[in-house]
Amino acid sequence: MKKISVLFLFVTYAIIGFGQVNIKDVICDCYFLDVSSKEKQCIETYKNHIFSIRMYKDTLAHGTSTWFWKDGSIKYIIQYSNGLINGDVKYFRDKKLIDSSFYKNDTLNGIYESYYYINEKRMLEKHFEFNNKGKRDGNFYYTLNGNSITGNFEMDKPYGIFKYNYKGDKYAIEEFKNGDIISSRKFFEKDQLTEECLVAENKKYYYKVIKYSNGKFQEEKLQDRITTFYYFFGIPRFELKHVYYGW
To answer: Do 133 and 107 contact (CB within 8 A), yes or no?
Structure first.
């Protein structure tokens, strides 16, 4: 293998996992793996610590590139083709897989997932599906503190039935079309309807609450407290102050 030593010509260099460092401490050693195809491997070090091993063809990233944390464990593994991200992208922390995604020509295309761990067991945190335009298009899943959301996106907008599962036997459902809420949000406990929030005409704010007991109408009242409206992963969300298990 033919070796080429290169010193980066930047005043400072932002190294993934290492922060801002002085150029005097950054060295890149490149080795030709195949002179005829101009494929080479470049090992970048900072104060004798390897922080990346990258594959190139000519001057473009090509093949598997790996970045490392200070302790030497893997931080990123990224697949390149002719300078563009093409293939799997994986992110690790504390030697555990945290994010996994797939790219085509530098654009998310396929499944993105993130994970958390309970007693070393990997658990799914988020799941998105992306089309070839990099838009969310397909199944969606998210969980946080024992609550979860399932639904679908169509061209980056919520579409169809979304279900919100809360701790215990509580859940809620509502329906979207082209990103707009087109139904009331219905709350259930042990499969019994307990509360229904009706959407206002502008499809942005919930303003009327209907309560049920044993699945039967109990009372109806206008929402007299301020409702906060915001977007959560592109899903229109709201806060009803009196709903103790709302998102």
So the answer is: yes
What is the amino acid identity at position 131? N
Q: What is the spatial distance between Cα 128 and Cα 138, in angstroms, rounded to a whole number?
A: 7
149 contacts 235 by C-beta, under 8 angstroms: yes
CA distances from 82 to 55, 57, 64, 94, 104 (A): 11, 7, 12, 31, 12
Residue written as tokens 């019994």?
Answer: 192
Pick left, alpha or beta for residue 245 (phi over 0 → left; psi -120 to 50 → alpha; otherwise beta).
Answer: alpha
As a whole number of angstroms, the distance between CA 187 and CA 163 comes to 10
Largest distance between two CA atoms of the chain: 81
Cα–Cα distance for residue pair 129/184, rounded to 1 Å: 26
Q: List, for residues 60-72, the tens digit of each pLDDT value.
A: 999 999 999 989 9
In the predicted structure, residue 53 carries a pLDDT above the cut 50: yes
Residues 6+ apart with CB under 8 A from 224: none
Q: Which of these, 188, 190, 186, 189, lies nearest to 206 by C-alpha position?
A: 186
pTM: 0.75
Give the span between the Cα atoms of 147 and 125, in whole angstroms. Answer: 11
Residues 177, 159: contact at Cβ < 8 Å? yes
Model confidence at 104, pLDDT cuts 50, 70, 90, reads very high
